[in-house]
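Exercise: predict the structure of this protein bound to copper (II) ion.
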Amino acid sequence: MAKRIAITLLLFLGFTFAAHAELRKFEMTIEELDLEVAPGFTVSVWAYDGQVPGPLIHVKEGDTVEVTLTNNTTMSHTIHWHGIYQTKTWQMDGVPDVSQKAVEPGDSFTYKFVADKPGTLFYHCHVNTAEHIDLRGMWGPLIVDPKNPTPLEKKVTKDVILMLSGWASAVAKDYGENGLPGREFDFFSINGKAHPHNQPVRVKKGDIMRLRLIAPNIPVAFHLHGHDSLVTHKDGLPLPKPYYVDVLPMQPGERYDMIVEMNNPGIWMAHDHNEEHTTGAGKEGGGAMLVFEYEGIEHPDFYMWKDHPYDPDFYMTESLKKGYGKHNNPSFKAFDPTEPRPAAKQAAGGHGH
Ligand SMILES: [Cu+2]
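Solution:
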């Protein structure tokens, strides 16, 4: 009798858990394409789903994630799910010759694991990382919503993902050999585009904005003008004592969540305070920078983005609202250099400032 009750209880618990956790099944490819980081500067990339950053993967803590990766490039690759514990699934950790054989050109591999760590995670290739991460844009965001969000997280009205990275123009077109010798970062970007080729973030007074900062390959000193930011999470984990900053130092691979009360209407710069990261080919005014524009503030004539066409999903804000799934983003599309550029792509890339 006791045994039967125990089994019934186990079945009930199992059902209850299953009712909340879902299987999230995706297909993903890797494509050999060119990415326009800045006008006139393109990089040969291995792009997850043909885009840099790779597609947003947004799931809930406890979900099972199944991704079938197909390698359409000339080199071998993997996906490492950075931050996931992979309890009893270490073979899904994406490290070539350690947890799996790399996925060869033309081959596929299916990753399946439980999203057992909540927060701002990311994924990246783990083959020859000094080239595949550093030079070829093989990274994308993995956002795992916690089962139990903090009270502050529940107040967020505007969610923004910023992936800050460097690029090496000297070896931009040379696949192989990890870009050595000659790899030196001289272009910098947020979400794959150098300022002012990227986008502003539009906010309104009263917004509670969360910045999810991800630094795939450069150290960062992120500075938002006019506001203090409350650092709430480090590498996905809630901090026991959140703290305020106006400059946030980060090392490659790190993620931080900052929550900012948007209480100071204006047009505000935000940038990497490593000054070389605000340059492109040695010229200042480019790189890992962006602007936060408050609704209702008139744009002065001198404002560089006065008539900038606005893309509300450039920082994945709209995609994050769409619910769980894999979200591709046309703004991050890389292109086939042997084919004519589609007109839409040229229009999106050709805005003035
Ligand atoms: Cu790779």
